[in-house]
Amino acid sequence: GAVVSQHPSWVICKSGTSVKIECRSLDFQATTMFWYRQFPKQSLMLMATSNEGSKATYEQGVEKDKFLINHASLTLSTLTVTSAHPEDSSFYICSAGDRVTEAFFGQGTRLTVV
Amino acid sequence: QKEVEQNSGPLSVPEGAIASLNCTYSDRGSQSFFWYRQYSGKSPELIMSIYSNGDKEDGRFTAQLNKASQYVSLLIRDSQPSDSATYLCAVKGQAGTALIFGKGTTLSVSS
C-alpha cells in the first residue's frame, strides 16, 4: 500500500517556540493531505485540509495563524505550530490518499510543550 | 454536523471468542467506510474498508454495512490478545474529503 512518512516522530519544545512537522507521500502524488490532532483517550479530530498549491481549509475552532500549513508540492505538506503552549501538546497525525478512497496515515508526531 | 458514533467500551472478550464492534453515522451521503486499529501512542492502521451494502470478509475480520440503517460493524473471529487495541470507525463522503472518525471502541482480549 501507499506510504506516508511523517517527521519527527516526537518533539519537545519550549513554550513560545515554533515547531514544524513534515508529512511526505513516498510513492504517490497527494493533491490533498489532512492534518489531525488526537488528545489522550480521544479520537482523531480533523484540523485542516491541505491542498497542493492553494490555501489550506481549516476546521471550525482551529486557528489558522497558529497552525500554519504549507503544501508546496504533491508529495510534501508541513504543519507549523507557532508560539506553542502546553495546551498544544498532543499527537499530530497527517494522512494522504489517492483520489478514490483510502487514507494512509503517517506515523504521527508526539508534541510536548514545556 | 457529520457524526460517527461508537460505543467507547471497553469491550472485553476471552481469547478465541468473537468480538463485535458497532458504528453508526449521520451523513446519508457517506460513500466509504473504514475500520482502523490503533495501538496506544501509534498511528491508526487500516484493517478493513467497505463501500457497498452487505458483508466483506478478510481473514478473521468481517465488515458489515447497512446504508439504510446507517450502520457499519466489524466482527473479529478467534480473537487474540494481540487484537487488544482501540478500533476506530471512519466514514468518508466524496473522493478528496477527509475521514470523519468515531471516538473509538477499546477492545480487550484476555488470554
Task: Provide structural commentary.
The complex is a heterodimer of chains A (114) and B (111). The N and C termini of chain A lie far apart (37 Å). In chain A, a hairpin with a 2-residue loop joins strand 7 (67-73) and strand 8 (76-81). Chain A is built from no helices and eleven strands. Chain A is mainly beta and 114 residues long. The model of chain A has no long low-confidence stretch (mean pLDDT 90). Chain A has strands at residues 4-7, 10-13, 19-25, 32-38, 45-51, 57-58, 67-73, 76-81, 90-96, 104-105, 109-113. Chain B is mainly beta. Chain B contains no helices and eleven strands. Chain B has strands at residues 4-6, 11-14, 19-25, 32-38, 45-50, 54-58, 61-66, 71-76, 85-92, 100-101, 105-110. In chain B, the strands form two sheets. In chain B, strands 2, 4, 5, 9, 10 and 11 form a six-stranded mixed beta sheet that branches. In chain B, a hairpin with a 7-residue loop joins strand 9 and strand 10. Chain B is globular, with a radius of gyration of 13 Å. The chains are: A mainly beta (114), B mainly beta (111). The A-B interface holds A 1, 6, 31-32, 34, 36, 42-46, 49, 91, 93, 95, 99-108, 110 and B 32, 34, 41-46, 49, 51, 88, 90, 92, 95-96, 98-104.
Key attributes of the depicted protein:
heterodimer, A: 114 residues, mainly beta, four-stranded antiparallel β-sheet, 0% helix, globular, B: 111 residues, six-stranded mixed β-sheet, five-stranded antiparallel β-sheet, 54% strand
Termini Cα gap of chain B:
40 Å
Which series of helices and strands of chain A comes N to C? EEEEEEEEEEE
- Low-pLDDT ranges of chain A: none
Using the CA coordinates, give the radius of gyration of chain A: 13 Å
Structural class of chain A: mainly beta
- Helices of chain B, by number, come to 0
Short structural description:
The complex is a heterodimer of chains A (114) and B (111). Helices cover 0% and strands 51% of the residues of chain A.
